[in-house]
What we know:
The chain is α/β, with parallel strands linked by helices.
Amino acid sequence: MMHVYPIFLNDLAGRRCVVVGGGHEAERKAQGLLDAGAAVTLIGPEGTPTLRRWAASGRITWIARGYRPGDLRDAFLVIVSEADPDAAEALWQEAQAEKALINTMDDVPRCTFVAGSVVRRGPLVVSISTSGCAPALAVRLRQRLEQIFDPDYASFLEMLGSLRPAMAARFPDFEERRRRWYALVDAVLPDVLRAGDLAAARRRVEDIIGATVPAAAGT
């Protein structure tokens, strides 16, 4: 069993991230990296229609052939999305030499990180790992959490995020500010937002943090 240390990567903007492969899994990995602002290079002789379109528009760089030594130069992160026994060890060794993070599909010994099964609701990101024991269980857990965390959580988090500057100004004492934050979360604002009642959401916020703050929240 792997012993994993869970983290979320940020500040990928402009960093060279390499995806090896060209199928739908490569497309999914490339999409996630593009969403994070990475400079994505795809290496593979074939590509899905979407990957081809991204390459034609300049959204990604496509090296339309199999991997060759030197392809990982200056890479920050590498994802090998298709099993390739002939290239696996060379990819691993070059990633190590470049000090790049690498994930190789179904090849845990050649991974320095693993990607969990992810639920996304706007700013909310929940990642699930079974430490390599049962990836299928991670998928089933993700499907359950997708039902619990419906899209209204995105609106809820966007509201909370927009409140941060005003909350810091209005409640400079950290303990008082923390108490107000927990009160906001425990007020179950997603239930109000789910009903589409933004006026009720504003009133609930005003009850907890005062009438002058919600204007910053866009409610």
